[in-house]
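User: quick one, sequence for these tokens?
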């Protein structure tokens, strides 16, 4: 069974449209309450409405909507072309945090925010490596 990473989103339709454009992928599943994108390497990115996770797990779960806009997760994606992937995300509506730069850990990485405030990073081996 593949590993799933699920982001809680304010509006499933908006986030689905954003990630389809930003990743250049069509969802493998898109039903009320869950959208899934199959990522390179076999992992799955899921998008679940904040209200849906509260219904599923109950009132003991702190309301994810209360943290809306505050970075709660980072999606760190290995890609072939950092700059092209980052430009595609920005064109889809992401907010740039940092352009592509060679980082101390040996990777070239660009950072942006998705519509829900999650950090989206595109990474590849550094050109200096």
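Assistant:
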């Amino acid at each position: 069974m593949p590993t799933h990473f699920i982001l809680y989103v304010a509006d499933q339709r908006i986030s689905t449209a954003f990630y389809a454009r930003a990743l250049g992928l069509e969802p493998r599943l898109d039903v009320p309450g869950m959208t899934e994108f199959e990522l390179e390497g076999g992992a799955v990115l899921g998008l679940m409405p904040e209200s849906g996770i509260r219904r599923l797990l109950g009132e003991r779960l702190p309301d994810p909507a209360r943290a809306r806009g505050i970075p709660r997760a980072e999606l760190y994606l290995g890609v072939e072309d950092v700059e092209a992937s980052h430009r595609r995300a920005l064109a889809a509506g992401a907010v740039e945090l940092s352009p592509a730069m060679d980082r101390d850990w040996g990777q070239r990485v660009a950072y942006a925010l998705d519509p829900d405030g999650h950090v989206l990073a595109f990474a590849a081996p550094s050109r200096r490596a």
